[in-house]
Amino acid sequence: MSNIEKLVLLHSNDMHGDFLAEDKGDRSEGGVSLLSGYIKEVRQKEPNTIYAIAGDMFRGSIIDSEYKGFSTIELMNFLSPDVVTLGNHEVDYGLSHLLFLEKCAKFPIVNANMFIKTNHTRLFKPYITLDINGLKVMFIGIITDEVLASTKAEKIVGSFIDVWDAARQVGVIVDNYKTTKVDLTVLLTHIGFEKDKELASLLDPKWGVDLIIGGHTHTFLDEPCIVNNIPIVQIGIGTDQIGRFDIHIDTDEHKMVDYRWQAIPIDSKHCNSDPILEDVINAYKSETDRKYSRIITNFRRELTHPSRYQETELGNLFADLLQLDSSFDVMLYASGSIRLEKLGPIVQYQDLKECLPYNGLVYMLEVTGKQFKEMMRFMLRDEALAEGSHTEFYQVSKGMKMIYHKSTHDFEEFSLNDKPIEDDQIIKIALQDYHYNSFSEFFGFPLEEVLKNKKARVVITDDFSIFEELLCSMNQVDSHIEGRITILD
Predict the structure, then answer these.
(1) Among 285, 308, 332, where does a domain finish?
(2) Tens digits of per-residue pLDDT, 61-74?
(3) Could you give the CA distance from residue 251 to residue 296 in angstroms, rounded to a whole number?
(4) Angle (deg, nearest 10), helices 95-104 and 70-79
(5) Helix, strand, coil share (%) of the chain residues, nearest 5
């Protein structure tokens, strides 16, 4: 008769510094204190419990930004994950800083596809096999190729850049390091939901991958998505919920017999808080409140940014502020740079900093009307607008108007200040430095072709200081959706 053991596998992804509980009136929701309380309770009730994090612990809160991720590592040490994989935002403070933070982490970080180009040495351990009371569980970490955009200054850093390479690396690791005593094999990925499905379809069943726990696209699933007989899960964004597998494993055959997966809400109705972690997070909050709680401005009403793939009120506001009294015609402000879905009506410095954590340079480029239209058509391609996509999208400043038909992949209107943009017309556009450095990838058009028009130049050295300065001098700020970007069909 087979010996059946139960394993509970908890998982989070894309926590993005969501450390504080939110008051919902009848309950508190999210935050690391309640999350820790739930994890501790499960660990006490279920001796065979693993907690895994699928990337992007960093960014999104003033506490994380103020301490450049060190606060996040300390809080994660209290949560005590059994294994973590890297997300693209783990390199936001620089690769060398990440390697320093890894030394501060009291938990293993796995990643199979970041390496040094010259000798192909991996930067992190590619996998770990955990022994949970005799159960052997292997985790392999895979990161998105978008990490390369953040490490362009690190010329010797590379990554396997597509899912074919990732699948091949999984096979290499399994062939070299997996033994018959491994009871469960899990891919802990940060490549996005669609790429998780593509990756699963490429995996050889002989490799014995049982589960994919993903992140990056902030996809919330009601149930696992099954591809190539492999369940794929992701649990949205933040700390308002946690994923839970209850798995039964045949330890004689070393295989998963059955499982149940559910999304568990993290709130005060379901979870007790962790008083120790509560004290730690309050100490950080007290410090940042003291430093950043001053009021910047008042909005006339709450302004929103509900999706990165459409024109939004906050997107228009920030694009317009940078374009105001500038030397360029159109500001292309990245939707992904706006990290809050709503802001105001009272805006404190820490609110603005949490909403816009990526301060930096702004470059001005001269493009022809034909080139500009080609760039925007690439931004609005079917792949980018598909559900579950995680591509770059840009908010445009006042005066720009695009009406785009998905059915024809062309523009009904493409105008600036009520005049059609002609193919040979020169348009001065502005981009943040991250997007300038990744121009060819994000716009599907070679930067070299644009630079033939005129050399790029820096026109703003710190975009956040522009927002702070202008908003401090304004009151009753308002912004509306004006039809600058209209997508039909």
Answers:
(1) 285
(2) 889 988 999 999 99
(3) 60
(4) 30
(5) 30, 30, 40
DSSP element (H, E) containing 136 = strand 135-143
Check whether residue 153 and residue 232 sit in a common domain.
yes
Facing residues of 247 across strands?
7, 259
Are 204 and 66 found together in one domain?
Answer: yes
pLDDT tens, residue by residue, 447-486: 999 999 999 999 999 999 999 999 999 999 999 999 999 9
d(CA 457, CA 365): 7
- Give the C-alpha distances (Å, rounded to integers) separating 109 from 49, 124, 217, 290, 320: 18, 7, 20, 33, 41
End-to-end CA distance of the chain: 59
410 and 360 share a domain? yes
Nearest Cα to Cα of residue 134 among 262, 3, 10:
3
Question: Any idea what the CATH number is for the domain that residue 400 is in?
Answer: 3.90.780.10
Same domain assignment for residues 300 and 183? no
- Element (DSSP H or E) covering residue 255: strand 255-265
- Work out whether strand 211-213 and strand 184-190 pair parallel, antiparallel, or are unpaired: parallel
Q: At what angle do helices 313-323 and 463-472 cross, to 10 degrees?
A: 100
* Residue 260, domain CATH: 3.60.21.10
Domain of residue 222, residue span: 4-285
